[in-house]
Amino acid sequence: RGAGPSRNAPVTALCLSLRAALPLGEGGVATVSTPDGTLMPESLRYEAASCLRALGEFRADVAIVGTCSASPAMGLTVTTHQDAQVKRAILASSARVVLAATGDKLSRTSSFRFGDIEDIDDLVTTRDAPQVTLDAFRAAGSRVHVAD
Description:
By secondary structure, the protein is α/β, with parallel strands linked by helices. It folds into two domains: about 10-60, no CATH class; about 60-148, no CATH class. The protein is built from four helices and eleven strands, in the order βαβββαβββαβββαβ. Strands 5-8-10-11 form a four-stranded parallel β-sheet, with helices on one face. A three-stranded antiparallel β-sheet has the order 6-7-9. A two-stranded parallel sheet has the order 1-2. Keywords: Repressor. It holds the Pfam family DeoRC. InterPro entries: Carb_Metab_HTH_regulators, DeoR-like_C, NagB/RpiA_transferase-like. It comes from [Propionibacterium] namnetense SK182B-JCVI. This is Transcriptional regulator, DeoR domain protein.
C-alpha cells in the first residue's frame, strides 16, 4: 500500500453519503464529490450502482470505511450484498485503507464478506475491543489506534 498524500496536498473526497459530504463541504476541509444517482432517503446514501460507477473512476490515497463486523477468521463483513459490493470497490480503489469500527463490531460476523483483515492498513477502534482481535490485526500488518 502507498504512503498516502502529503500533509499540504489539497483534499478531494468522494463521499458516498450526504452525512459524510456535508461536514466536509461546509467546513471547507475538502473538495467534495458525490456519485450521480439515486439517494436513499432513509440513510442519505447513494444507491449501490451509482457508487460502483463512481468508484470505478476514482483512485483514493486513503479510504475511511466502516463495517458491521470484522473478525480474524471471517474477515470484514456487512449485512447486505450491495454494501459488500461497494466496500469491495472502495478497497480496490484505495492505496491505503482505514477501518473505523467500535470494539463490539470486532467480535461478530455478518452475512456478506467484502475483505480480509490483511486489507486494512489502520484500525481505529474503542477500548472495549478484544485484545486477541487487536493482536490479530497487528499480526496482519495493521496499525491499531484505540480511541477514548
